[in-house]
Amino acid sequence: xxxxxxxxxxxxxxxxxxxxxxxxxxxxxxxxxxxxxxxxxxxxxxxxxxxxxxxxxxxxxxxxxxxxxxxxxxxxxxxxxxxxxxxxxxxxxxxxxxxxxxxxxxxxxxxxxxxxxxxxxxxxxxxxxxxxxxxxxxxxxxxxxxxxxxxxxxxxxxxxxxxxxxxxxxxxxxxxxxxxxxxxxxxxxxxxxxxxxxxxxxxxxxxxxxxxxxxxxxxxxxxxxxxxxxxxxx
Length: 234
Fold this sequence. Notes:
The protein is mostly helical. It has seven helices and no strands.
């Protein structure tokens, strides 16, 4: 089989686009990881929300880039839903709860900011050494790496383990979900649209329930620290 000039031009253009997308997705993957570090180093409640919003905006850009590179235009619908739910609705819901809390800063974390960043860095190194190189078939690029997704999941689990404020733990849970979401993009260019819609709906419902828990906890104990839950025992 011989290649015509038009075939050669199409292949060259495709590889050129793949190289450009590799660069863009590599930068976005780095930004996604930095947003995880921002979550780990936060102490002010508003900083948690801004870090999560920045993470969600970056993840939306990754979805758009992957959709363009893989020719999966249904991912544009996923990107629009991600913007609506993760960039606007969830941060607004969290801010609405935060403004009514007496303290805007986490006062009793188990680890300070410096140690938290060190642990986040170690978890990232563990992710890069342990995660396999997964390249989804049918495209000319190999980003975002699965290691970034695994690092976000581990950082989210770390936040859940060492942060005592309920808002911080909510953001940690959301960081885990973003890591799993980006992992699906890295492995198989995302999940079916119906599944993506169901996950976003579940995340939104979970955030609403958790923010209601924060409100009730504050009204009962004048605090949103999980350690104060022991005072609710009869």
